[in-house]
Design brief:
With about 500 residues, the protein is α/β, with parallel strands linked by helices. The protein is built from 18 helices and 22 strands. The strands form 5 sheets. Strands 6-7-8-3-9-10 form a 6-stranded mixed beta sheet, sandwiched between helices. Strands 16-19-20-13-21-22 form a 6-stranded mixed beta sheet, sandwiched between helices.
């Protein structure tokens, strides 16, 4: 750590342990977070990260060990007590009250039952300042927050913490819903507050983010803090080794770039315009290939993959081809009937039925296969789920448990299994590894290899550059609503991909 970051300890954790019945979520966790420092916390799902954050924010009480805030022993009776002590957290899932105004969402929980703790003018001034810092242009504070994009709604959640000027800010996978531009502005905002003495505990699965922002990294494995590394020690290989005991991010790499040009075309897009000023998109997807969709957030790739599923809203066609015969796709129902599956980006809002069980979530798209005499056969759906549970290594208790009891990565595996059960020939994956750990990513990567080996074609939007480099046969880069570049395997590098995000060829960047 640099000399200027040798500030006083803002948060000290010593030997924290927490069990839930027979499950030991935390065995012994210790770390020091200093004022003026960004301290990353990494580990696979189930390593104890979420439990640690919930103890620090007053959701859970530890069984053993303790922690200090500003040198004083702390044990919060609830989240409100943590907030009063200056410890605030922003989580991966976007927490917003959709119909309520942006301003109300930013200041959610700030007022008492009978009186306002912060005046209206001060609320507006602070919200405007922070949201402008994060979004460049402040949205209408009186508009319903549900009108904003997922990234902008998450920025409002981050603003909810920043307007309170926390002593300790915990970002628990909070960047996973942000687009690249907003994330970069957040990092700049964090750097400014770090210089003013704020301490940040940064929980992330993204190594590029940790490399960019963190001063030190603590790794958790199976409930224990196994190492704290200085920035120069925290190489990708070392972090993978500490988290998993393995040496590489992908144990089972795909044999990319091996799809024959003569492979059958299974999906065709013709003259598709994502908005009225955009250039038309023409695209063919072949059996057994993985095509990546990339670009800065909001530049069209998300609209494109949704159009493949829902059909065009304007000019252009989407056709599912089978033996050369085309079936037009004009709705998600038609897409599913034609052998197309779709895994959405927002698990919570678009894919999960939170009140239903794991089994019911799995069977939702293929329920007709479990109908016997007008009644749903539980045994049938369990039998169909079993091979996917094993193949995807879904870590769970009973199939009757609520889907909410699973980690984010295992919830995602259930959603993927739901669509695989329909036997798709085309699978659309909208940022499928967002917010999931390295182990779950490996399982999904292995699945891609198995699917493409059977001739399934995959279109995968990813916000992680490394995924494109490691997994894709080719990448379509979108810019300002148009398809601006197609990078085949032989030209696909980190430099060429990032350069394409900004409308440049790699030769231009290297010449600068």
């Amino acid at each position: 750590m640099s000399e200027r970051n040798q500030g006083p300890v803002a948060l000290r954790v010593t030997g924290l342990a927490k069990s839930f019945g027979a499950t030991r979520a935390l065995k012994s966790c210790s770390l020091d977070l200093r004022s003026g420092e960004v301290h990353a916390l990494m580990g696979e799902n189930g390593s104890g990260k979420s439990t640690l954050v919930k103890i620090l924010t007053g959701v859970h009480a530890p069984d053993r060990g303790g922690f200090e805030v500003g040198g004083a022993a702390a044990r919060f009776a609830g989240p409100a007590a943590a907030i009063r002590a200056g410890v605030l957290a922003v989580y991966q899932e976007v927490l917003a009250v959709g119909p309520r105004p942006v301003l109300e969402n930013v200041w959610l929980g700030a007022d008492g039952v009978f009186r306002r703790r912060v005046g209206e003018s001060e609320k507006r001034a602070k919200a405007t300042a922070v949201l402008t810092e994060l979004l460049e242009t402040c949205p209408d504070l009186d508009a319903p927050i549900e009108e904003l994009s997922l990234s902008d709604r998450q920025a409002c959640g981050i603003a909810r913490a920043l307007v309170r000027d926390p002593r300790v800010l915990i970002l628990d996978e909070a960047t996973s819903a942000l687009d690249v531009a907003v994330r970069d502005r957040l990092f700049a905002a964090v750097a400014r507050r770090k210089a003013e003495g704020m301490a940040v505990l940064f929980v992330s699965h993204r190594m590029d983010e940790v490399d960019t922002i963190a001063d030190r990294v603590t790794v958790l494995r199976s409930g224990d803090s196994v190492a704290t590394l200085e920035k120069h020690e925290a190489t990708g290989a070392e972090l993978v080794r500490l988290m998993t005991g393995a040496e590489h991010l992908t144990e089972h790499a795909r044999r990319v770039g091996a799809v024959a040009q003569g492979a059958e075309v299974v999906l065709r897009v013709g003259g598709l315009r994502l908005h009225e000023r955009a250039e038309p998109v023409d695209f063919e997807l072949r059996a057994g290939e993985v095509v990546g969709l990339a670009g800065l957030e909001g530049h069209g790739q998300d609209v494109f993959i949704r159009t493949l599923w829902n059909g065009p809203a304007g000019p252009g066609t989407v056709e599912r081809l089978d033996g050369g015969r085309g079936t037009a796709i004009g709705s998600s129902r038609q897409a599913a009937a034609a052998g197309v599956g779709y895994v959405p980006r927002d698990r919570r809002g678009e894919a999960l039925f939170g009140t239903l069980s794991i089994r019911e979530n799995f069977a939702a798209a293929t329920l007709g296969r479990d109908s016997r005499g007008g009644l749903i056969s539980r045994r049938s759906s369990l039998g169909r789920f079993a091979p996917y549970r094993e193949g995807l290594q879904v870590r769970m208790g009973r199939e009757s448990d609520p889907i909410a009891t699973l980690s984010g990565g295992n919830q995602q595996k259930v959603v993927i299994a739901r669509w695989l059960a329909g036997g798709p020939r085309v699978l659309l994956l909208n940022d499928p590894t967002r917010g999931v750990d390295i182990g779950a990513k490996r399982d999904i990567y292995k699945l891609l290899d198995e699917l493409t080996g059977r001739g399934v074609a995959v279109v995968m939007l990813s916000t992680e550059v490394d995924e494109h480099i490691e997994l894709m046969d080719r990448v379509l880069v979108f810019r300002e609503g148009s398809l601006s570049a197609t990078l085949p395997r032989e030209r696909l590098t980190r430099q060429s991909l990032v350069a394409a995000f900004f409308g440049r060829e790699i030769e231009e960047v290297e010449a600068r």
